[in-house]
């Protein structure tokens, strides 16, 4: 039995006003008809000085679950796959240097810290891809990749 059919059955057997079920049905229809996507809630770090990142740096990552209509979904709790790719020899990982492979969302938001180590090169970039193998409510998640860090020689 589909969820909207269940709502119709509840309308007939509860004392809750029918308007409640109508509004809930509209909400469910809306969220199941959109493409889900993740929004990056932080500003990319550009112009990072090479000497600073090679000494070790961190970056706070904020991700928000939303849809193609621009609505943020604070009801979403769960894990999504993530992948960090560096364009040279730098390493992006957790505090122990291990790869970060998932982001845990609570009330539509995932927050974590990435630690940079290894030997970065001038003009190296770090790209974060979210949703590499995820679904939301049985719908494919639109994977999103974004450059989150760019290194320059600097002093």
List the helices and strands and how they pair.
Blueprint: H1 3-13, H2 18-32, E1 36-40, E2 45-49, H3 50-54, E3 57-67, E4 78-86, E5 90-93, E6 102-105, E7 109-118, E8 125-130, E9 135-136, E10 139-142, E11 144-152
Parallel strand pairs: 1-10, 2-11
Antiparallel strand pairs: 1-3, 3-7, 4-6, 4-8, 5-7, 8-11, 9-10
Helix pairs in contact: 1-2
* Strand order, sheet with most strands: 5-7-3-1-10-9
CATH superfamily of the largest domain: Immunoglobulins
Average of pLDDT: 83
The tally of helices reads 3
User: What is the approximate shape?
Assistant: elongated
Task: Estimate the helix proportion, in percent.
Answer: 10-25%
Q: How many domains make up the coordinates?
A: 2
What CATH architecture of the largest domain do you see? Sandwich
What's the SSE pattern? Answer: HHEEHEEEEEEEEE
Structural class: alpha+beta
Q: Report the sheet with the most strands, covering strand number, pairing sense and barrel closure.
A: 6 strands, mixed
User: What name does CATH use for the topology of the largest domain?
Assistant: Immunoglobulin-like
Strand content: 35-45%
Distance between the termini: 64 Å
Count of extended strands = 11
Provide the gyration radius in Å.
Answer: 21 Å
Q: Give the CATH level 1 class of the largest domain.
A: Mainly Beta
